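Weekly structure sync - notes
Attendees: PM, LS, DV (DV joined late)
Agenda: review two folding runs queued last week.

Item 1: First target. Sequence and structure tokens pasted below for the record.
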Amino acid sequence: MLGKQPDVAPAATLAAVRKFTVPDLVGTVPQDDPHVIKAKLLANAALNEYIGPEISVSAGSAQWGTLAQAQIYASYGEYSRSLQALKRSGISFFALAPSKLPQEYLRLMFPQPWWNDLVADAGKNGLDPYLVASLVRQESEFNPAAVSPAHAYGLMQLLASVGKENAKREGLKGFQTAQLLNPATNLQLGTRNLKSVLDRFGEQPEYALAAYNAGDVPVRQWMTNGDYKDIAEFVESIPYTETREYVQAIMRNREMYRALYAGK
């Protein structure tokens, strides 16, 4: 309706913004590269702070250095370190076209550790395993030893009281809070807890995830006070920035998991 408009020169302030350059990423790491070999030895000695600098010395590491770091950490089961290496690389993976991003990066960004336990526990509670994996990714980055400042423990970041309550429901006798640092136990109790949250909010994952992060009371207030046309408008209207981005990230990640592993 506006028709063609005259071109307008960019504001002077924008001219100072650094342009993001996308490296030509490759999906393979030269395993015979001496710096990659040294980096693996450093990882074996738990000298993690030297892995990145060692790899960066190699010619061509701009194309595969981040991948090499992430693969090394993942090979030792350090999935949280692997994810952090990808996040700190400065590469905006979600902004890249699929043709620019080899699948190896995506599989490291959306890993499947403890997958058999996760799928079994999700199935027992009628949950989407990709939703559970996305929640774990957001809560703990797959670090089973994660303990938050609020004293939430393990993969699904369960409070001791929540763990105790669900352990009783599961018939686990002699429950101790330290058991929440065991991946199998955390997933068993965490999926049961997530199911109960979903049940309280009519199986609507966006409501349940908001409550998982912010608590039931605020979410009930938002549901009551807002005149939302659909669930997407509810999510966009969540007044807590952390909770809004938390819900959006998990729902996005669930679709990434489905695309990667379920062909959806």
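Item 2: Second target, run right after the first with the same settings.
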Amino acid sequence: MKRRQKEKKNTSSVKELNVKHELLYQKRGKRFSIFCLAPSLLGVMLFFIGPFLVVIYYSMIDNPINHEFVFFENFVSVFKNGAFRQAASNTLKFSGIAVPLAVTLSLLLAMMLNGKIPFRSQFRTFFLSPMMVPIASTVLIWQVLFHYNGIANDMLAVFGVSKIDWLKSDYGPIVVVLLFLWKNLGYNMILFMAALSSIPKDILEVAELESAKPWQVFWYIKIRYLSATILFVTIMSLINSFKVFREIFLLTSGYPYDSVYMLQHYMNNMFLRLDYQKLSAAAIMMSIAMVIIIGILFLTENYFGRDVEG
């Protein structure tokens, strides 16, 4: 009996020691993780969170000299500004057209190039080539194509269509959308091709044995497995559509035709006028709109992708 009691005490003491060692190991692991993450966290605080807090502060004061709080007056004045409303409307229209086209066309291209077609590698190289061309060279090509005396008008003249001043008319968004698609389709296509190759082959074989139609395979199998990639491509395309100011600025100027006057033009002009209050208010309003849109996209992806995750 005494021997058994001693053995029990020894085993319980060993267990307690093991538990203590595990706790110490976990604490050391947490400290080491915090130590490794500290530089990144410090960088995020200094270069992202800190400046964003400064932007919020500037959006709620009358000017950088008096620093008198006016709370939401800057937001109201920006929202009532005709130039801001024009820029916001143009940006939403452009994103509403360009982003769905970028996602849909790149997905169709990926499915086409994922099949057994001739010159598949040449097509891939062709669609990826815009990624290697500097943006200044791309804009120069577009200026040559869509100038008033450019190639596009020469081709239209063959069919008896009169010349169009593409960059100084309501046709300007068409030029920008084409430029956006040309720059982004190749990258999106590669992402979709990688996602298509990761779909389990046995599921596709079962669907083929069950005589499933191509549209059923696409909608009930491929779209389900591609939901995460579609979300990522949509978010990246949305962000790129909000950054199209660079291309438009090089094509036109800081004050382009009304149809291609974007939010970035408005904020850039506010910066040049040193109107930091309106600039900050416009930036926050755009950030809120982006967060809402991305939140809706995440909810949609969760709905379509939950069966795959399960």
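Discussion on item 2: The chain has twelve helices and no strands.
Action: LS to circulate a short write-up before next sync.
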